[in-house]
Design the sequence.
């Protein structure tokens, strides 16, 4: 098994940090853009795509700031994190994604995030 590569990608989102956080940290918010359906029991989140389920553990969260998950089946230290960054001067809001992928799948993973965040922006009425 090859080692996963950490990558980061940033998206400008026209939204308040509080509203954006609801789409990142709640099952109902995540099911609007990230997966077909999301269920949670405590720290365990079940993401459902096309009938297939993937479980992740909520590692950390800070209200209106970030959420960090690890997939249950990952046998390494990989995780995915969605962090809200607010520019101190312009007050622009960005969503900063940190994720891991196999070396030959990094570009594909970035495209997937770009598509998913496109759906998120649509839900938020952001450009």
Sequence:
């Amino acid at each position: 098994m090859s080692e996963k590569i950490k990558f980061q990608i940033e998206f400008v989102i026209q939204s308040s940090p509080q509203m954006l956080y609801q789409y990142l940290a709640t099952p109902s918010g995540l099911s609007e853009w990230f997966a077909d359906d999301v269920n949670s029991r405590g720290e365990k989140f079940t993401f459902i795509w096309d009938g297939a389920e993937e479980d992740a553990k909520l590692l950390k969260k800070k209200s209106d700031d970030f959420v960090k998950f690890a997939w249950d089946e990952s046998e390494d230290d990989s995780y995915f994190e969605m962090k809200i960054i607010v520019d101190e001067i312009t007050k622009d809001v960005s969503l900063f994604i940190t994720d891991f992928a196999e070396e030959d799948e990094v570009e594909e993973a970035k495209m997937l995030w770009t598509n998913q965040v496109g759906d998120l922006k649509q839900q938020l009425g952001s450009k």
